[in-house]
Design brief:
Blueprint: E1 10-16, H1 20-32, E2 35-41, H2 45-54, E3 59-60, H3 64-68, E4 73-76, H4 83-90, E5 99-102, H5 108-114, E6 123-124, E7 127-129, E8 150-153, H6 161-173, E9 177-180, H7 183-210, H8 216-221, H9 225-233, H10 238-247, H11 249-272, H12 275-294
Parallel strand pairs: 1-2, 1-4, 2-3, 4-5, 5-6, 8-9
Antiparallel strand pairs: 7-8
Helix pairs in contact: 7-9, 7-11
Bound molecules: NADP nicotinamide-adenine-dinucleotide phosphate.
NADP nicotinamide-adenine-dinucleotide phosphate binds next to α1 and β7.
């Protein structure tokens, strides 16, 4: 459980992009009083109108320049492919000594594309909260999204440790556990734990959709737990995931190569009737699942804790 902060961690936080991650940050900032004021900006009038209607941020601004003026923390919460254009838009308007961070799912590309655009007078500390849902937009956020989840900070060489400690305090106040990690290692770890699994889910749902001998109606009606989980993942925002694969190309291709090798080995074991291979493989993977539950990163309730109504089976 998060304990309310005794004093704001930042005087003014500017959220650029007002989707799932930014809106969850705002509600969690409010929950614990982590900022004196939060300003917000999104590129579309529709999102800004929604944000004003639901009270998302203390002040919704009509330009990124207005939102970042006087902010001591600026959070870039847009798709990875849009980070650089947003950074060049805000760069001339940043307060001296401000910290700029981001929440993008890929880190090396953000460092390479955003870093050179920012003035030397600001601290640039990339970050990535490992928390999300398949929903997007300003109305999808909730205050508990980051509770007991990891947030990885990726400070570049020469970053002021005091600025990093302040950003760490914010994420801890948002409910997250914080660790620092090197950018390339981050991108490899996330290729294993998030990016490639998403690609596999997209593929499996695409296969089911293409398969003429099983109708779409049957797929929906009889979808077992495994496939339902794939469909949930494959419902994630297309822009965000397009950008993830375009910017974490090397690590994703490396993991995909290994995945393909393992898949061929399993395919061969099925064809040749090698039950020992299948049994040993599934025994090893079961242990990984147990480790995730023991680490508190998921529930061991049957069917991921879903309440199942008989009519829906
Ligand atoms: P989201 O709900 O889709 O919101 C994206 C926001 O970015 C919207 O406000 C959108 O503005 C704005 N935007 C989109 N394209 C833009 C462009 N070309 N230029 C300027 N602004 C643009 O996204 P999200 O899930 O919050 O993701 C934001 C970041 O967090 C991404 O970098 C993603 O990789 C990362 N992340 C996501 C998750 C997750 O599970 N969703 C988890 C961890 C990290 P409009 O509304 O005006 O279109």
């Amino acid at each position: 459980m998060t304990t309310p902060a005794t004093a704001p961690v930042y005087n003014r936080i500017a959220l650029i992009g007002l989707g799932l991650i930014a809106s969850s940050m705002y509600w969690a900032i409010q929950r614990s009083g982590l900022a004196g004021e939060v300003t917000g900006y999104a590129r579309s009038q529709a999102t800004r109108d929604t944000a004003r209607r639901i009270g998302l941020t203390d002040r919704v601004c009509d330009s990124a320049a207005e939102a970042v003026a006087g902010a001591d923390l600026v959070v870039l919460a847009v798709p990875v492919g849009a980070m650089a254009s947003v950074a060049s838009e805000i760069a001339p308007h940043l307060a001296q000594g401000a910290t700029v961070t981001d929440v993008g799912s890929v880190k090396r590309d953000v460092i390479n594309s955003v870093g050179p655009l920012l003035p030397e007078s600001v601290h640039f500390i990339p970050g990535h909260p490992l928390a999300g849902t398949e929903h997007s937009g300003p109305e999808s956020g909730f205050a508990t999204l980051f509770d007991n989840r990891w947030c990885l900070l990726v400070p570049v060489e020469g970053t002021d440790p005091k600025a990093t400690a302040q950003l760490r305090a914010l994420w801890e106040g948002l409910g997250a556990n914080v660790e620092e990690m090197d950018a390339d290692h981050h991108d490899l770890v996330l290729a294993v734990t998030s990016h490639t699994p998403h690609l596999i889910a997209y593929t499996m749902v695409g296969v089911a959709d293409d398969l003429g001998r099983v109708t779409d109606g049957e797929v929906i009606k009889y979808s077992a737990a495994g496939f339902r989980d794939f469909t949930r993942i494959a419902a994630s925002d297309p822009t965000m995931w397009r950008d993830v694969f375009l910017t974490n190309k090397d690590a994703t291709l490396e993991i995909l190569g290994r995945f393909t090798e393992e898949l061929f080995a399993l395919q061969r074991a099925i064809r040749t009737g090698d039950g020992d291979h299948l049994f040993d493989y599934f025994t090893r993977t079961r242990a990984i699942r147990r480790g995730i539950i023991e680490a508190g990163q998921d529930t061991d309730a049957p069917d991921f804790g879903r309440s199942v109504s008989k009519e829906k089976i």
